[in-house]
Fold this sequence. Notes:
- It is elongated and about 100 Å long.
- The chain has 4 helices and no strands.
- By secondary structure, the chain is mainly alpha-helical.
- The longest helix has 35 residues, at 25-59.
Amino acid sequence: MAKKKRRITEDKEEEYEFIPSEFDEREFILKDIYGTKVLFVITGLAILVGIIGALLSSMSDIGWMIATVIAFLTVLLMKKLLMLLGFRVDLLEMKTMLANYLLFLMLALGVCIVVINQPFM
């Protein structure tokens, strides 16, 4: 005898509806402008630390070590420096601040290397 075929019935899947949250464009733009202001201050500070590091490097043999320590100490004290300048660092996201720290180190090192070379020293 032939066996009876089983018919598979499909269960109805639950339907999900995505409801986007409210987007406050003004708050987004203000946060972005604030982050840019902090970035400009960090850029200026990096240029200053790079020039100081170059001067220290040209004075003695271990000057580059002192310049490196100064750059890393500045990164460690960056939040306090920004608070002294009147910025509220707690408004910025952690990934934004990490990017600012890395940018500071790269720019300070770049300025230091450029200033150490022939046309300047």
